[in-house]
Each structure stands twice: as structure tokens, then as C-alpha cells.
Design a protein that fits this description.
Layout (H helix, E strand, L loop, with lengths): L14 E2 L8 E7 L4 H7 L6 E6 L3 E6 L2 E6 H4 L2 E5 L2
Antiparallel strand pairs: 1-6, 2-3, 2-6, 3-4, 4-5
């Protein structure tokens, strides 16, 4: 299955952080799954802007002005929309 890219989506379409294109400015819509509390402890919360800096087994992203790496499993629990 072809991955969904941020540039291919409308601004109101949600996707996981894994699916977003590297370098894309995003806004977190919802956190769902068993890692929600861990993500919130790291600074991920609803309506927070985030930028995906690198993909792969571990994703590098910028949240709250801080660069951090999270596993692709945690990134699957972060639903985002393209920031407009």
C-alpha cells in the first residue's frame, strides 16, 4: 500500500505521524492508544504544532521547540493534520 503523504491530503484529513511527509508542519489532532500518557509526558498534546524532521524506525520531530526521537510505534498513536 502506498503511504499517504501530507501534500496529497486536504487540510482536514487526519493521518498518523508516520504517514506525514518529512519537513511538513503539522498540528496534533488526537493521541490514541496505550502510549498516550507517555506521549503527553514528552510534550505531545492535542492542538500542539509539530514538525516531522526525519522518518524511519525512529522518527525525529520538533515539538515545543525541542527535537526528540520517538519510535514508529508511538508515532502511529499520534494523529495529525497539515497546519494551515
Amino acid at each position: 500500500m502506498k503511504p499517504v503523504r501530507a501534500r496529497d491530503l486536504e487540510a482536514d484529513s487526519a493521518m498518523t505521524l508516520n504517514q506525514a511527509r518529512v519537513g511538513c508542519d503539522l498540528r496534533i489532532q488526537v493521541l490514541t492508544g496505550p502510549g498516550c500518557e507517555r506521549l503527553r509526558d514528552l510534550g505531545f498534546c492535542e492542538q500542539m504544532p509539530v514538525r516531522k524532521l526525519a522518518g524511519g524506525r525512529n522518527l525525529l520531530c520538533s515539538v515545543c521547540g525541542t527535537r526528540m526521537a520517538i519510535s514508529s510505534e508511538l508515532a502511529e498513536q499520534v494523529f495529525v493534520k497539515v497546519a494551515v
